[in-house]
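User:
I study polymers; will you set down one protein's sequence and backbone structure tokens?

Assistant:
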Amino acid sequence: MPTITLPRIIYPFPSLINQFVTAAHEQNRQWVADFGFITTPEAMARFDRSRFAWLAARAFPHAGFHELCTIANFNTWLFMLDDQCDEAQLGKKSVYLEHVTDGFMNILKHNTPVDTVLGRSFTDIWERMQALGDTAWQARFIRSMEEYFTSCHWEAGNRAADIVPTVAEYVTMRPYTGALFADVEAIEIIEKVYLPAHILQHFIVQRLVLACNNIVCWANDIFSCAKEARQGDVHNLVLVLKHERNITLQEAVNETARMHNEEVKLFTALEKLLPSFGAETDKELERFMAVLRSWITANYDWSFHDTGRYQVKEVEVVINS
């Protein structure tokens, strides 16, 4: 079996971690047990190794304890949804997946109960989020989740029809499949950063958010390419590049790393081009930007140093050819 060498990634941003990380982990493990995600000691041991609370704590380093637990539970829920899709082959059953995600959308839009583990736990998260965010924020978050679920349907349709997306299609859809837009919307309620709509919609701010999203998702594609290649899933930038350009896996990893590094350069360049919106707004915008930077380093630090989910190494990953 061939080996691939993963690129060494260095970011020009600080690595931070929330002071409440250990307490948030304890709350998170109790939460997954209470809602029935974890039912055996073996499953809890695997959950402990995943250390999902550390990802949230790195991404939202200044959040309060309650807010950190809320976003840690939300991101854990996303991982649990992803795992259940894999285990139940739900990721290939596009019609049934749409039925499931319609239920989640009814929770978001109408607070309609869904009597499943995923449904009850999502209701719990949403109730806490509604208490933290006003109706305008809730509308933005609902839209970001609807886009995420739509992207899940796109992936499921591809799997069912055995379609490998083009690189252009994949790059367009990847920001949605990672659900990071929802996490970016959550900055307001988790880190208490309040920016007016015209600032959030400013074209440079929007492109910075997309750059952050691309950096996180493409780095994740590098970290998880071996796992996804083994599972036969093509929804990974490394794997679609390999397929479309008929190149080796190592060449595809290198090209993904190049694209990722260019996006980091774009992010740092765009930061310098942000105009002034006045002293108070500039201060809030800097806090918003700080969370975007934290998300970038959080994804890398968690993937390499915290979690046992991907088991990535900086030197080699062995995968099937």
The chain is about 70% helix and 0% strand. Residues 203-231 form the longest helix (29 residues).
